[in-house]
Amino acid sequence: MPRIIYIDASDNQFEADVEVGSNVMEGAVDNMIDGILGECGGVMSCATCHCYVDENWLGKLPPMSEQEEDMLDMAIEPKDNSRLSCQIEVTEELDGLVVRMPKSQY
């Protein structure tokens, strides 16, 4: 099972084994990791699962959809490496993926 590394706004690191086929948001919520809220349940209507993907991993993710780009416009403090964690499907290739949570989601 791939391990995802979540780093909060205070640089605390949490690791979680996340099932292949689920998404990074579900991994955080299922493991009670603060900072990824996922208020809409992963249907891309709230941007409360906004995260910053470590630069080394950006090229390993599929490109974001136009709908995800539009939703990220609603996020507080978006950056070039912003993604919605509900849209990052966990695969074996993402073992070790590092995401950071924004201060605005605490």
From TrEMBL:
2Fe-2S ferredoxin-type domain segment(s): 3-105
Asked whether the keyword Metal-binding is assigned, the reply is yes
Q: What are the required cofactors?
A: [2Fe-2S] cluster
Question: Which InterPro entries does the annotation name?
Answer: 2Fe-2S_ferredoxin-like_sf, 2Fe-2S_ferredoxin-type, Adrenodoxin-like, Beta-grasp_dom_sf
**What PROSITE patterns does UniProt report for this protein, alphabetically?**
2FE2S_FER_2
Q: Which domain of life is it from?
A: Bacteria
Q: Give the record's GO biological process terms.
A: P450-containing electron transport chain
Supply the alphabetized keyword list: 2Fe-2S, Iron, Iron-sulfur, Metal-binding, Ubiquinone
- Pfam families, A to Z: Fer2 (PF00111)
Q: Does the keyword Disulfide bond apply?
A: no
Gene Ontology MF, one: electron transfer activity
Name the family.
Answer: Belongs to the adrenodoxin/putidaredoxin family.
Protein name in the entry: Ferredoxin, 2Fe-2S
